[in-house]
Design brief:
The chain has about 200 residues and is of the alpha+beta class. The chain is built from four helices and seven strands, in the order βαββαβββααβ.
């Protein structure tokens, strides 16, 4: 089932998400719905807070990036079929050169900005079978993981912009939070009248 994606301005996007266990209700169904929602919105990652749940869960499939002819062949191959579920993730280390890449977010449609992140991460997490994993990722795979990981920490990519850039997109962000945007996928906007 395609779930509505929570728009910028909703407090759930600012919460530090909580760990879950195997007894989390309907977890398999939730993961299935998150995949469907992400693919429906042409995304490469989706975190549970983006569907209204402040839990430490996100899904990633970087396969669409593997068609980018500007990338080195090795990078294309690494991105192709990189599809994972991350539960209770913790980034243990970030290293390497910082590099800039133009990022967007399904919760912030029509806003894309250059964001600087470190090249390599070490992350420990549970997979969908609650098996412990610890892996090192670099390049675009690391970047997508960092972006989704930020969501479970209550951080948005716009937080990483300079104060000048933030001022330049302030009106756009305000319009998104008020629902004054045309999105190609289903969204849920903060109800400003109720003060949520």
């Amino acid at each position: 089932m395609v779930l509505p994606i929570i728009a910028y301005g909703d407090p759930v996007l600012r919460k530090v998400a909580k760990d879950i266990n195997q007894e989390h209700p309907n977890l398999d169904k939730l993961i299935e719905n998150m995949w469907e929602t992400m693919y429906n919105a042409s995304g490469v990652g989706l975190a549970a807070p983006q569907v209204g749940l402040p839990i430490r869960l996100f899904v990633i499939d970087t396969t669409p990036f593997s068609d980018d002819e500007d990338l080195a062949k090795e990078e294309q191959e690494a991105l192709n079929g990189f599809k994972k579920v991350f539960i209770n993730a913790t980034i243990e280390e970030e290293s390497g050169e910082e590099w800039v890449f133009n990022e967007g977010c399904l919760s912030i449609p029509d806003v894309r900005e250059d964001v600087s992140r470190q090249d390599t991460i070490v992350i420990s997490y549970l997979d969908e079978n609650f098996k412990e994993q610890k892996e090192t990722f670099d390049g675009l795979r690391a970047r997508v993981v960092q972006h989704e990981y930020d969501h479970i920490e209550g951080v948005l990519f716009t937080d990483k912009l300079s104060s000048l850039k933030k001022r330049l997109i302030k009106n756009k962000l305000g319009n998104i939070s008020k629902g004054k945007i045309n999105s190609e996928y289903r969204m849920r906007f903060p109800d400003m009248k109720k003060g949520r």
